[in-house]
Specification:
The protein is 47% helix and 14% strand. By secondary structure, it is an alpha+beta fold. Among the domains are: 154 residues, no CATH class; 96 residues, no CATH class. The longest helix is centred in the middle third of the chain and has 94 residues. The radius of gyration is 57 Å and the shape is elongated. The two termini are 100 Å apart. The relative contact order is 0.06. The structure holds zinc ion. The site of zinc ion has 8 residues, from helix 11.
Length: 387
């Protein structure tokens, strides 16, 4: 903790990057805060500022690094209320600016709810600050306060190289008893500064139009680039799909060819393996001989020549198909007809084999009933009813 001593100078400096761009005594800074003197070169900006307590020997006692926002007309934020003097009094000591300095910054703020209003200076900014204080452009220790209220106003001191686009008429508002030539001189100065401001405004408008054009151009380029990318992707996918489609068609064609080849090979094999039978059958067919077989359940069956191979491969299946039953049912009926015995099983798992009445007609034969004795038919019925 440290009090602000009467012999200390209270300054406010503005930073532009790593450099100090403007410096003023705290009284003039208060005028800036009142909006009395707009700083148009800070229009619409958030400025990095510092409040300093400087000892008579130009060493820095305390520094508070705070933000200050300006509106578009260059007037500071009316709600700005960072207690810079209180923060300077309460600031902790840091080794910086060539000696022990009390610093209040974002990382070193004694009042937590003011932290967001502070910022953290870089070492380069601290060096620039030290250099600028040592230069003493404000004439600290030599300044005559009365003099400061007339012609040369430290509040509006701008470093060399900066465009002085600020109304510098503090004096005319403070001192009203100036003589006519002085007033005339100030009026001209006013006019000149208004003209400068208007020029600056026109320049900003031009810049604004340029930026709008650039933005439009960028938007167009962006849209075109999206359109190009999407078109390219669609084209690439289409090419891929077309290639896959061609491959699939080729594959189908190959498969069809293979099937055809296999079929003709099969025909050749059949002819090659049964040359005699084939020729004999052809001879028989040529002579008008009819092929006829006799099977139980269906009697005499005429076999067409083109079905001879199928019949010979599986006669039972062929006949069962003709009778409209499955090969299993036809086989069971044949067995039953040849030897009518019960096909049910006793408790020991042996076949019952009890003689039963034969069912002569295939159409009346029901497997599991017609080939069961009475006892096994009853057992089967009771099982069904339980199920
Ligand atoms: Zn039985």
């Amino acid at each position: 903790m440290g009090e602000i001593r009467a012999d200390q100078h209270q300054l406010v400096v503005f930073f532009e990057g790593a450099e100090v761009s403007r410096q003023m005594l705290v009284e003039e800074f208060e005028s800036v805060l009142d909006g009395f003197v707009p700083l148009v070169d800070y229009s619409g900006r958030r400025c990095q500022c510092a409040f300093l307590l400087v000892n008579p020997d130009l060493s820095t006692d305390a520094a508070v690094f705070f933000h200050l926002n300006f509106d578009v007309s260059g007037r500071p934020d009316l709600h700005w209320n960072t207690p810079i003097k209180q923060l300077a009094s309460q600031a902790n000591t840091e080794h910086s600016l060539g000696s022990s300095v009390r610093i209040a910054s974002y990382s070193n703020c004694s009042i937590a709810w003011h932290q967001q209003k502070l910022w953290e200076p870089f070492p380069e900014q601290l060096e620039a600050l030290e250099r600028r204080i040592k230069e003493n452009r404000l004439g600290l220790g030599q300044l005559n306060r009365q003099h400061s209220l007339t012609s040369e106003i430290p509040a509006l001191h701008i470093d060399e190289g900066e465009a002085p686009l600020v109304l510098t008429s503090l004096a005319s508002h403070v001192q009203s008893d100036l003589d006519e030539p002085v007033l005339e001189k100030q009026r001209k100065a006013f006019e000149q500064q208004i003209n400068l401001q208007q020029l600056e405004l026109a320049k900003l408008r031009d810049q604004n139009s340029d930026l709008k054009l650039q933005l439009k151009h960028l938007e167009n380029r962006f849209q075109k680039s999206i359109y190009d990318t999407v078109s390219q992707t669609i084209e690439q996918r289409e090419v891929k799909w077309q290639a896959k489609l061609r491959q699939a068609k080729l594959y189908i064609q190959q498969q069809a060819r293979q099937i055809k080849d296999l079929e003709s090979e099969l025909d050749q094999d059949l002819s090659a393996n049964h040359p005699d039978q084939t020729s004999q059958l052809k001879q028989l067919q040529a002579r008008g001989v009819k092929l006829q077989v006799d099977h139980p359940g269906i009697g005499a069956v005429h076999i067409p020549y083109d079905e001879v191979v199928e019949y010979l491969a599986a006669p039972l299946v062929y006949v069962a198909n003709l009778c409209g039953v499955s090969a299993e049912v036809y086989g069971a009926w044949l067995k039953h007809r040849h030897k009518p015995r019960c096909q049910g099983f006793d408790e020991a798992g042996s076949i019952c084999n009890m003689p039963i009445d034969a069912v002569r007609e295939l159409a009346e034969f029901v497997p599991g009933r017609s080939d069961f004795c009475i006892r096994h038919q009853c057992l089967d019925e009771s099982k069904e009813s339980l199920a």
